[in-house]
Structure formats: C-alpha cells, structure tokens
Amino acid sequence: MSNKVPQLRFNGYSDAWVQRELSEVARYRNGKAHEKSVVETGPFVIVNSKFVSTEGQVRKYSDVDIEPLMEDEVAIVLSDVPNGRAIAKTFKVDRSGVYTLNQRIAALTAKENFSPSFLQLVLDRNRYFLKFDDGVSQTNLSKSDVLQFTTAYPTIEEQRRIGLLFESLDNLIAANQRKLDLLKEQKKGYLQKMFPKNGAKVPELRFAGFADDWEERKLSELATMNARIGWQNLRTSEFLDNGDYMLITGTDFKAGEIDYSNIHYVEKERFEQDKKIQISNKSILITKDGTLGKVAYVEGLTMPATLNAGVFNVRVKEDLAIDSKYLFHYLKAPFLLKFADQRSTGGTIKHLNQNVLVEFPIPLPSLGEQHKIAGLLSNFDNTIALHQRKLDLLKEQKKGYLQKMFAK
User: Which UniProt keywords apply (predicted)?
Assistant: First the structure.
C-alpha cells in the first residue's frame, strides 16, 4: 500500500494519503432500462448518459421510479462512443425521490469514512477510465473495471474539507454561468425588438426622443466589401512570426474583436499587393469560409495589416453618415446568417458569397439613434465579456486546485 501526500492541502493536516481500490470505498449497483416508462414530462428524471454529460441540461422523464437514486449517491457513465465526452462523467445526487438510474449507468454509495463529494471528484473523467477508450469501438466499462479503480484517500475530515471547497467553487461557477446566460438572453431580446420587422418602418422598442421612420438600404449602398482573391492566396510558408505587416485571419477573431496575441506577419510586397484588403481601425471583418459569419470590429490597430483568405473587409463609405459600430452590431446579430440561409439553394451553407452580402438589407435610423443603439449593444458586449472572463478565471482556479490538491 503506497502512502502519498498532495502538493497543496489545508492547514492542520499532515497524515499520508492511503491508496485504496474503489471496492474498499463504495458499494456498486447498475441501472435498469427505462424505454417503456419514458414520458414527455413526469415525476422522475432519468439519469442517463446525456443527462450526466450535459450536467442536467438535457432531460428525459419517467412515470415510474424504476431504480431510485438516493441523496449523495454518485452516478457514473459506463458506456460511450469512441472519443466521447460522456464516459466516466459523474453526477452526485442532490436529493432523494427525484431521479431514477438508467442502464449503462452505475450508482456508487460511499462507505463509512468516505465522502461522496470527494468520491465524485476523484472519479469524474479520471484518466484511468479514459484509457479504456481506444478511439475505434464503443467504450464499455464493466463492474470490475470500475471497482478496481485505485487512488489515494486522506482522512474523512480532509475529504470533507476538500469536498466543501469544490462544492463552493461549483456553486460560484454555476451562479456566474446563470448571470452570463441571463445577459445573453437579455441582449437577444433587445436584438429582436430594437430593429423593425416584417416591413415595419419603426421598431417595437426604441429610445425616448426618436420618432422618425427608419430607412432600409442594401449593404452595398453603405459599404465596400473586399476579400483576398484566389491568385493572391498565401502559402503557410509565407506566414512570419514577426515583422512590420500583420496578417489577420478568421482564427484571430475573439468575441467580436481582434486578438493580436497570436498574429502572423507577411512581407511588405504581400501587404502592398492589394490596397482593398488593407485594414484599418473601424474596418468590419466577416468570415466567409469555415465558421461562417463571425464578425470582428477593428480597434487598437497600431501597424499596417492585411487579410488572409476567407475574410471580407467591410468599410463604411466615407461620404455617408453611418455609425460603423452600429453596422458592426447589426452584421454580428443573427440576421445576416438567417438571410444567407434563406438565399441558399439547400443544404448547409459552406461559403458566404459576396452576392449575398451585397444584397443584405440594413435598417437605418437617424445617426443619433444609431449611436444610441450601438452604445447599448456595446455595453452588453462589454458586460458579457467581463462575466465570461470571471467565469473562465473561476474554471481555471478549479482546474488548478484539482491538479494540486490530490495525491498522484
């Protein structure tokens, strides 16, 4: 029996952690088939692989509690497709009388002196289980595969402290995720109401002090659109790690902005080859291949830059009273891809054609109202980005603790 200690632990604990097989730590039972009891909505949630892998977002219901799950039991997924994301994913039952255990899911009940929360932490997507996935055939964990899982355990008091820490982190992550989701839904609601629909001259919702009818203009009337043409395409061997002329690609787009941290560069002659795809601050960039319709607004550009293939450079015409930020927000909204989808001849859109882009209708209020709308949507984006960074930081913090608070 091997005794180990983690890299990071709470003050007051110094005992060695002890290696144990799961059979020493928990009791095991299998779930049962629910095909005949599935209903559209019912009193019991079926704990299947989809429920566990989506953290409860995707649910099926049963009218019969065929294999009841009790509070603090840990469910673990036993079967998944090759390279799947569900195998060995876990769910700790938060209350009794709500969940019923499906087939190909096991339930583990922690024995005396072992914490259910700690048990879930050491089991969840553990590399031991992932090794059973050969990337070719269906992965199926047997009872013996699960019960032979071996890892180190501290005293029950330290297990509980660790479990409480991660429960607190998970609650913080969940609360911040809910805030983020709410902000995105609020923005979505404003997008649906702040632009005219179905031929209307005014939107459903607008700022006080504005009453004039809106116009509708084609994008080609408001802006120029250019992309790198075929014969100008760059070879990857021409991408430089440093230089005086930046090369922007669709993979550099991040949350509506350009992420300059991993930018490539090109030689001067490649930059000068086509002035129409030389970008500047206030350029609006749209991907036309790969992930279609990603949009970025260029700000903070400090040196000459050109575009790689697969991206449109959209520039507001200089003689027009158009707020480029307003145009950016409208192009970033779902309206463009919906329009492109309606214009497609069937099947999945694989390429955003310029002949679609030039015809895309843009609703236009007065310049003052454009400023107001752009400001509101920019504030939403900034707040969403702030919450996303906070959420990412919490997830990284949890990841760091997971790496340091468990004996290897």
Answer: Coiled coil, DNA-binding, Endonuclease, Hydrolase, Nuclease, Restriction system
pLDDT, position 1: 42
pLDDT at 2 over 50: no
User: What is the reported pTM?
Assistant: 0.85
What is the pLDDT, as a whole number, of residue 342?
A: 84
List the structure tokens of 242: 């440093």
pLDDT tens-digit readout, 274-283: 999 999 999 9
Within 288-342, strands assigned E span 295-297, 305-307, 311-316
Distant-in-sequence, close-in-space partners of 273: CB < 8 Å, separation ≥ 6? 232, 306
For the cut 50, the answer to whether the pLDDT of residue 73 exceeds it is: yes
Q: Please give the sequence-ordered ranges of beta strands (E in DSSP) within 249-369, or none if there are none.
A: 253-254, 257-258, 264-265, 278-279, 284-287, 295-297, 305-307, 311-316, 361-364
CATH architecture of 3-153: Alpha-Beta Complex (3.90)
CATH 1.10.287.1120 fits 155-198+366-408, yes or no: yes
Pair type for strands 79-80 and 139-140: antiparallel
Per CATH, 3-153 and 155-198+366-408 having the same topology is answered no
Query: Can you count the helices (H) and strands (E) in the chain?
Result: 12, 25
Domain boundaries, the chain: 3-153, 155-198+366-408, 215-364
| Contact present, 263 and 239 (Cβ < 8 Å) | no
pLDDT tens by residue, 292-308: 889 999 999 999 999 99
